[in-house]
Amino acid sequence: MNMRNICVVVTARPSYSRIKTALQAIKAHSKLNLQLVVAASALLERYGTAVNYIEADGFKIDAKVFNVLEGENLTAAAKTTGIGILELSSVFENLQPDIVVTIADRFETMATAIAASYMNIPLAHIQGGEVTGNIDEKVRHSITKLSDYHLVASEDAEERVIKLGEEKEFVFNTGCPSIDLAHIVKCDGDLNFDPYQKYGGVGAQPLISEGYIVVMQHPVTNEYTDSRQHIEATLDAVKEIDLPVLWFWPNVDAGADGTSSGIRSYRERYDLKHVHFFKNMEGQDFLKLLNNAKVLVGNSSVGIRECAYLGVPVVNIGSRQNRRQRGHNVIDVDYNTNAIKNAIEQQLSSGKAEQSCIYGEGNSGEQIADILSEVKLKFHKTIVY
Amino acid sequence: MNMRNICVVVTARPSYSRIKTALQAIKAHSKLNLQLVVAASALLERYGTAVNYIEADGFKIDAKVFNVLEGENLTAAAKTTGIGILELSSVFENLQPDIVVTIADRFETMATAIAASYMNIPLAHIQGGEVTGNIDEKVRHSITKLSDYHLVASEDAEERVIKLGEEKEFVFNTGCPSIDLAHIVKCDGDLNFDPYQKYGGVGAQPLISEGYIVVMQHPVTNEYTDSRQHIEATLDAVKEIDLPVLWFWPNVDAGADGTSSGIRSYRERYDLKHVHFFKNMEGQDFLKLLNNAKVLVGNSSVGIRECAYLGVPVVNIGSRQNRRQRGHNVIDVDYNTNAIKNAIEQQLSSGKAEQSCIYGEGNSGEQIADILSEVKLKFHKTIVY
Amino acid sequence: MNMRNICVVVTARPSYSRIKTALQAIKAHSKLNLQLVVAASALLERYGTAVNYIEADGFKIDAKVFNVLEGENLTAAAKTTGIGILELSSVFENLQPDIVVTIADRFETMATAIAASYMNIPLAHIQGGEVTGNIDEKVRHSITKLSDYHLVASEDAEERVIKLGEEKEFVFNTGCPSIDLAHIVKCDGDLNFDPYQKYGGVGAQPLISEGYIVVMQHPVTNEYTDSRQHIEATLDAVKEIDLPVLWFWPNVDAGADGTSSGIRSYRERYDLKHVHFFKNMEGQDFLKLLNNAKVLVGNSSVGIRECAYLGVPVVNIGSRQNRRQRGHNVIDVDYNTNAIKNAIEQQLSSGKAEQSCIYGEGNSGEQIADILSEVKLKFHKTIVY
Amino acid sequence: MNMRNICVVVTARPSYSRIKTALQAIKAHSKLNLQLVVAASALLERYGTAVNYIEADGFKIDAKVFNVLEGENLTAAAKTTGIGILELSSVFENLQPDIVVTIADRFETMATAIAASYMNIPLAHIQGGEVTGNIDEKVRHSITKLSDYHLVASEDAEERVIKLGEEKEFVFNTGCPSIDLAHIVKCDGDLNFDPYQKYGGVGAQPLISEGYIVVMQHPVTNEYTDSRQHIEATLDAVKEIDLPVLWFWPNVDAGADGTSSGIRSYRERYDLKHVHFFKNMEGQDFLKLLNNAKVLVGNSSVGIRECAYLGVPVVNIGSRQNRRQRGHNVIDVDYNTNAIKNAIEQQLSSGKAEQSCIYGEGNSGEQIADILSEVKLKFHKTIVY
């Protein structure tokens, strides 16, 4: 019997972590052959390459696609996508996948969607249908309209994809594979490693045994020039917090410069004795760190999804996660130092939140692999209304 | 007062004809400055370059973008789009448009949509919301989700774009500007030129004063390998028709080879004494030719739109125009020689059809220019549901 | 023992014919593994794809690179080269060659040379060191300066490459592998096939048993706008010749339009009852056709090389072969109808010319393979003076 | 009278400094119109963008070309060049230059040379003909063979370009425009600014009034994996020096990672109380800093050229400047900590060296502008032998 070639394109380190259990399930599936393509910022040292983690997890990388054009402005983001199409179409021609899988909504994922759909390769989209209210939203829904199969992460998303005119038969609410990892950590989540020793990074090394805060704040593409001001609001709030702070560096993005240089400049100006900066961390370790954190601060989707499942309190800043379905664990605030400080204090006093399963129950990866092994192969579709 | 820069990207000759009155109205508008970009197959000699017509109509071309990668396969179509993004983002950086306008749904139009939306330039889409049931549909609805303004051509399309989650405030049913041209021809449409003399072409030159048939059949992207068989069904049907036949060469497309080589090979094998082949024709002349034709045969959208307004009988072949709203003038058939022949005969015996205004009343160009001059500039949106 | 991977990049049909025996010798060599890449116009149907011939000859194609950007102007030639670099560097990364081989001097060969040399892959150049006096010359000598090994075709070329500052140790006069094929035809060269039947083509089918002329004229890149005038001078001369004429279509090139459309238009205007047009012909058959021709007319390098060995009289038009070493068989003329006609008549009256071995003795392919198997691997060099 | 459009493409910050006086002379020339294109690493913040300096010097930038593909490996260098060709050919089409000027020998300059020569635009090359013995050399001589005019910086280079088969008439020894700046500093070169205050940077801020050393060491492309080891040899040598050290960050290059991460890691491991790190410095200030330095250490060409004119002692490390003509001021050493330390001490004890004018006398910029205004326009050439 012929196995199906399932080609998954990972364009950013967080995307890898998010779907790792799906990759494992595809690899382990008796009817599927995993073809793994790593591209864009997922490859780059200065954003914390995903390659080491991927290989340490036992995956073989079938193709690496370097397509990030330097410039960190909007034109470079457009051109990076153009180069991505050029490169990925060659990769698909070599690998001859039966299904291509694209993940979420970063701008470069559009390159995967266009190359596959223009080449008449059935396209599966993981985590479509969500709403956030930024440029990612244009990309996300646009990819939905190019995709043949929709592997969404919540009921909310399922309904929205169907409203977008997709056939119900090809919309599957599998939950989010990132919750599979949270599930494991939930069961056995002690902080059994020293993050400074294991992951290096720069800055102070405050004692974390008595509790700590985690910060992760990405630039918001549509508000390019404000990136620096946004990050400084958070830095100001965090500077005065009494607890140790573990800060994670942002991913590449148009706008990264404002955020990154904001952090760098702040570090030169102030002596932050309670803040340590990490470039990246293996997914499972990061979840353990979160699971034991007092609060997560920033605008990462991990606060909305994994932390809902884990019951970790979150201070969610700004518009990046707008309108994503929330559990009981989130307080939303604007880019305002006082508002951020107050919300952190409120979360500290409330303690752990109740668990929500809105983004899955811990078996998404296997569901995804099963669907990809059975779904009818097709690249032709028409809107239902 | 600052005028708005409206940058229109034309990627194919038929797209130019379709929106010519909108270009004229933008150019003439006191608050608008037209920036015209000609790209892709619209530039190429072997598909009948649009440049001559554009310049003869008095337009200045602000930038030419050569991005068609040879190969005429699906990979080349993907790569053409990638190159288009690379080139158009440079063009937009130079021209600094306030609004970019992309037309319809050919695969290369995606390059315009991505370059503009990724660069945070407000994007207007002309002729979204329609349904056809081929690869164009993925492209069309995907562009809708990247676009900020929707200038649709029918009520049917208007409803569909709104269902896709776009804000009503930014969806405008202007009708199709191609109907503006049909309107002029309807008023004064005698065939006042000799098509052989004016447009050259190859093949026989049958007398057309006693009536004639027009044929225009494009390859259908999703059915690549069948292109040749499809065109031969039509060639076989047309070969036995008693009337003069004026045949128009297809545009570039992934699949063009099957169609084009099918025609070339047929011409070498058979002596087609009643068939003349044109590469292209100025839009107004083409409409006059249609207005005086007994039947239009093929799969061009002109049969669905302009011919509805003009009341010209149409034999529409295959899936390319599937589910587009139709007037009273169309008979649909499959790629089948007998079916095509019978439908032609039926249309010949019925004569002219009743006029339908479903695609506009003749003032679309002006409506479009007015909207572009007044609509709120924005590049940020979020799905309504 | 590890075999060396020898990656040969073929970018045009004539380049393939020219080095076929080298490919055969590499493939047959016990220490070499042939990696064959077919790119640019060599792939395209409308210039006579080389793929069919290559596969019929028993070669496996390891990668196909579509990089021809349509436009047929100088900008498109530059961009085609840029795309070629993007694509070929991915191919080299996949194939991991020990040596890359680039052939001759067409503009796209620069893409091979840059990709290989920038990636620190040892680069061998076949047929450097010659002089022609057109844009090809800039390309040819520029590639010499990027190359590590020089497999030249004549003593003249050997001396020139050494003068260019290359180390003698790495300059090898192997003769031209195209002469290997001429050698076989010289031994057994009867015209044992019917060219019309075997190769199709268009136009008249004059009887060739009593002798015929072959024409092959390519556009000359530097003289873009003159291409049409040049081809018409030849067409006018040939039109009045009494013998059957077998005309071969030009390859792609910036300027192809002038030449190709010149021929097309001429065919529509005149009834050329003694002229047949071929798109292409398998190399060996073409040599047999030449070997039995009364005269070769045009500007192909085959007139300078293979015809010298075969003793076929040549009327060489214009600057394309300027300063290439000549045997006794060539008369040079300008783009002038009368000059061309007179030279043809002079060659007809003289008959077969004396054999010259200036471009090799018939064993170049094997010499090349042996050198590639033994030469020291290196990608670092410095000018000798 | 029509002025000539002279389009200069600057791809790296040091190239800008090197030819600033030529740009000034072109801008000021009554028969020339300067078109300035800034591309590649010259634009990027993280290598010290040249844009600020260029604009502060009163130049208008006509086009910015972002073409650096991230990855910092050899494949990325090749692809960066491919993208450069795509982008620059569009720029040249817009600007319609009469002459394009390319500078020196970095890998991206090849994109300028190919785009211009393939588009039949006369190409001038500044600083060809030199010998260094690394990958730059392939690029440099290859560009010579694509160029129409050669504006070389020394007698040695002049002779070499002529030996490469170029016509004497088009080879001009103008000296190096960087010496024009050294000339100004030589006349009035006090250190009239505080480098820490004016240029920021990171690290210690040792007192420099009693003398200091300058370090500038770039990665050497051909020896990619050794970059880190090379930089550590220098770091080890410098660590034990008693004088203040002003260290300049390397430019982008394939291999930058090894060098840059070597420095970063060393800084985390050691407390370098006498070393300050600069990202960049305006050319004239840098020369003043050099003019007052005790020794320059590293592999920058500034040590060979400007320092010869200024008489500043230089410890030149490794192969990067191999075979470049030297004045009396240079000691060459290998990548060896002891050798570097000893050479520094030797230079410290010898003091200032004698002036050499081998790279010009201080009026190169004006000579270059005059030549570009008068030289015959041509893009066709043939090798002289």
TrEMBL record, chains A, B, C, D:
Pfam families referenced in this protein's UniProt entry, alphabetically: Epimerase_2
Any GO MF annotation of the entry: hydrolase activity, hydrolyzing O-glycosyl compounds
InterPro entries to which the protein is assigned, alphabetical: UDP-GlcNAc_Epase (IPR020004), UDP_GlcNAc_Epimerase_2_dom (IPR003331), WecB-like (IPR029767)
Domain UDP-N-acetylglucosamine 2-epimerase: 24-372
Gene3D superfamilies, per database record: Glycogen Phosphorylase B
Any Gene Ontology biological process: UDP-N-acetylglucosamine metabolic process
Domain of life: Bacteria
Protein name: UDP-N-acetylglucosamine 2-epimerase/UDP-N-acetyl-D-glucosamine 2-epimerase, UDP-hydrolysing,TIGR03568
Source organism of this protein record: Psychroflexus halocasei
